[in-house]
Amino acid sequence: MSNYLHGAKKLLILGCSFGAVFLTGCASERHHAIAPETVETYNTASTADKVDLIVGVFENRSNYQQGLFSSGTDRLGNQAKTILKTHLQQTNRFKVMDRENLEQIKHEASLRGATQKLVGARYTVTGDVTEFGRKVTGDHQLFGILGSAKKQTAYAKVSLNIVDVVTSEIVYSVQGAGEYEMSNREIVGFGGTAGYDATLNGKVLNFAITEAVNHMVKDMQNGRWHVEL
């Protein structure tokens, strides 16, 4: 009897060991880099002088996040402004001045014992998110028995204005729009199910601004709006 118990104990320990190895073996970890979407002139040289400008007010004028229970913080407008600054700088056609961190920059300059020599910009870029929205659509095959599908769609449209700081004239205007989709299909119980993907908001906003900046640079190079240096 003792031999039987001893053997059963060994089998139990062995089974637990295999179970632990199996569970450990199922765990996996992976990561990969994703190339961000950039403007068409990114990392391209230009013989023309760069235009000095600042990014002014960028507001969300759409109905998105504007309801009764909104936080009062224009998150979409702030996000759009950050994206616009990056893309304008990466065109290699503009000198983008930072006016939002002047106190911190002044403090850092004083720590270096240097006197700031701020340069005034020739133009201000203002912008608005004029349209923004999301929708979820789907279908069912044979009342869902044979499968179903769900598609999340995000849409954004932005408007940019170039304003002459001397005359306050709007010398150029452009719009950009984009749409992002994510879909999944489940067939007879097999397939993925996707929940709400908040990253679609940032992706479609980035895409719309990229389109607007690309149009801006092309029109500037083609002489469709005159630049005063």
Tell me the layout of helices and strands.
Layout: H1 2-26, E1 51-60, H2 75-90, E2 94-97, H3 102-111, E3 123-141, E4 147-164, E5 170-186, H4 199-221
Parallel strand pairs: 1-2, 1-3
Antiparallel strand pairs: 3-4, 4-5
Helix pairs in contact: 2-4
- The multimeric state of the shown protein is single chain
Biggest sheet, spatial arrangement of strands: 2-1-3-4-5
Helices and strands, in order, run as HEHEHEEEH
Largest sheet: 5 strands, mixed
Please give the radius of gyration in angstroms: 28 Å
Weakly predicted, low-confidence segments:
16-25, 185-194
Helix content: 25-40%
What is the structural class? alpha/beta
Strand % is: 25-35%
Span between termini: 98 Å
The number of strands is 5
Overall shape: globular
Average residue-wise pLDDT: 82
Number of helices: 4
Can you characterise this structure?
It is a single chain. The protein has 229 residues and is α/β, with parallel strands linked by helices. Helices cover 32% and strands 30% of the residues. It is built from four helices and five strands; from the N terminus they run αβαβαβββα. Strands 2-1-3-4-5 form a five-stranded mixed sheet, covered by helices on one side. β4 and β5 form a beta hairpin.
Main attributes of the structure:
229 residues, alpha/beta, five-stranded mixed beta sheet, 32% helix, 30% strand, globular
Please outline what is shown here.
The protein contains 4 helices and 5 strands; from the N terminus they run αβαβαβββα. With 229 residues, the chain is an alpha/beta fold. The chain has a 5-stranded mixed beta sheet with strand order 2-1-3-4-5, with helices on one face.
